[in-house]
Amino acid sequence: MWYRNVEVGMKKILVSSVIAMIMIILVACGGKPKPNDFDWKITAFEAVDQDGQPFHTEQMQGKIWLVNFAFTSCTTVCPPMTFNLTEIQQKLKEKGIEDVHILSFSVDPAIDTPAKIKEFLGKYKADTTQWRFVTGYSQAEIEKYSLEMFKSQVQKVEGDDQVVHTTSVFLVDQEGTVLTRYNGLEPPEDKIVEDVKSLLE
């Protein structure tokens, strides 16, 4: 009987070893795990950017995007968020990651003309060849789109020139899926770089 116990034990060890090897192979082939906090698909939305050029969310396909919400007359969170995005943009380039785009939605489109947006971005060391700051839609449209696509509230307060909006930065993959978000006021730059790398592997 003892040899049967040994045989059973050897089979268990063999099965465990095979499973372990399969897991190692899968991890090696799959690379780093992709962030998957969310699974929100971007839907159609039209706008114009800081150069007055048409923008459609279809243009996001095949590219990695960092998305945020801001407005040019913001006196609180938008300036530091915009500065932080320029820092992230620079860090990605330093790591040899060139093809990552930034999309900023104006949450005050009645005020934010392309000219005002271009002036606003000009205050920062932003590579605007890969940064689209868009406007050209109604307040109701951006409030609805922000809530439906990014689960984030945008609200312009009556009688106030400031707008309530999220301070998150969202990561959108090449298929137009919102994967995760980061704190735009204190962004985890190393984490963002690693997450972007995982989408390129």
TrEMBL record:
Pfam families assigned to the protein according to its UniProt record, in alphabetical order: SCO1-SenC
Disulfide bonds: C74-C78
Transmembrane annotation, as ranges: 12-31
Residues reported to bind Cu cation: C74, C78, H165
GO terms assigned for molecular function: metal ion binding
InterPro entries for this protein: SCO1/SenC (IPR003782), Thioredoxin-like_sf (IPR036249), Thioredoxin_domain (IPR013766)
Keywords: Copper, Disulfide bond, Membrane, Metal-binding, Transmembrane, Transmembrane helix
Ranges where the Thioredoxin domain occurs: 36-201
PANTHER family: ELECTRON TRANSPORT PROTIN SCO1/SENC FAMILY MEMBER, LINALOOL DEHYDRATASE_ISOMERASE DOMAIN-CONTAINING PROTEIN
Similarity remark: Belongs to the SCO1/2 family.
Name of this chain's protein: Thioredoxin domain-containing protein
Organism in which the protein naturally occurs: Paenibacillus alvei TS-15
